[in-house]
Amino acid sequence: MKDFMNKIKSPAGESIAETLIALLIVSCGFILLATAVVAAAKVNTSIENTEVVFNISGQDSQASSAVISHGGSAVSVSTSVDVTKYVTQNGYVYYLPKEN
After folding, report:
1. Quick one: 6 and 42 in the same domain?
2. Rounded Cα distance, 37 and 33, in Å
3. What is the pTM of this model?
4. Mean pLDDT for back-to-back runs of 10 residues, the chain (100 residues)
5. Which residue range is the domain that position 84 belongs to?
């Protein structure tokens, strides 16, 4: 602590080594920030190219959902689930999976 106080009161200023280390730390911070921005942009692009489809076939018996990616690697996943249709008093319609 005493060395720190002497350095603050000293008119000599900082050495070139201290300045270069500080610039190195700041540069590493900017590189990490730029990497995070690029990764976020890639994730946003892949999400924008994904379409989720939910179809109800019949009155209240069968529902199917699919996830389709329109990017470089087209992935199509589809599954079917038995559901029960519910309608609230104000007309809101929702579906819940049937219990086995």
Report:
1. yes
2. 6
3. 0.46
4. 74 82 96 96 79 63 57 62 82 79
5. 50-97
Do 67 and 85 share a structural domain?
A: yes
Phi first, then psi: give them for residue 67, nearest 5 degrees: -115, 120
CA atoms of 2 and 13, how far apart (whole Å): 16
> Residue with structure tokens 């700041």?
26
Is residue 59 located within the same domain as residue 85?
Answer: yes
Pure H helices in the chain: 2-9, 16-48
Q: Which residues lie closer than 8 Å to 79 by C-beta, 6 or more apart? A: 64, 65, 66
Which phi and psi (to 5°) does residue 99 adopt?
-80, 140
